[in-house]
Specification:
Helices cover 14% and strands 46% of the residues. By secondary structure, the chain is mainly beta. It has a single domain (2-154), classed as Nuclear Transport Factor 2, Chain: A (Roll). The strands form two sheets. Strands 1, 2, 3, 4, 5, 8 and 9 form a seven-stranded mixed sheet that branches. It has a two-stranded antiparallel ribbon with strand order 6-7. The longest helix has 10 residues, at 35-44. The relative contact order is 0.18.
């Protein structure tokens, strides 16, 4: 589950391929179809300014397991920063906006040849909010260009040397 947050946040297609089975489906409400299609939609929603997307993934709870299948519920909080003028799957955004939503992933995992992956996902939303976004780098004394997140491979966590 943590790999999912990282894959979407960092637009890491190779990592995303390790999470869902090839025929896996993802119903996020605004999208209901194959999981690869949702990933494509999610990474294309990023604007060229590299605005932030961040998932906080809770502890997965196995609700039931029957042989090679498991029903799993995992809480999440998603935070996204959207740039003014951006026209993505949310429509035209008039001002810099920070959006929040929270809920649970209801996943059906399936085990094949010793590997567990998601076969079906339904996203259940519990709350959402948005407000004007005003960066606070100066408030936190974080200088321009210092270790700010980016999509792969530019993000510092993809560096070969640590």
């Amino acid at each position: 589950m943590l790999r999912y947050g990282r894959a979407v946040d960092r637009a890491d297609a190779a990592l995303m391929a390790t999470i869902f089975w090839p025929e896996g489906t993802d119903n996020h409400g605004m999208y209901d179809g194959d999981a690869a299609g949702f990933f494509e939609r999610a990474i294309n929603a990023r604007d060229d300014a590299g605005r932030a997307r961040h998932h906080h993934i809770g502890v997965p709870r196995i609700l039931s397991r029957d042989g090679g299948r498991a029903k799993v519920e995992t809480s999440f909080v998603f935070v996204g920063v959207y740039g003014a003028g951006q026209n993505d799957n949310l429509g035209l955004i008039e001002q810099d906006t920070i959006g929040f939503n929270s809920g649970r992933y209801r996943d059906l995992f399936e085990k094949r040849e010793g590997t567990w992956k998601v076969l079906r996902r339904l996203t259940v939303y519990d709350w959402s909010a948005s407000s004007a976004y005003e960066p606070a780098w100066d408030f936190f004394n974080i200088p321009e260009g210092i270790n700010r997140g980016a999509i792969e491979p530019r993000d510092a966590t993809y560096d070969a040397e640590w």
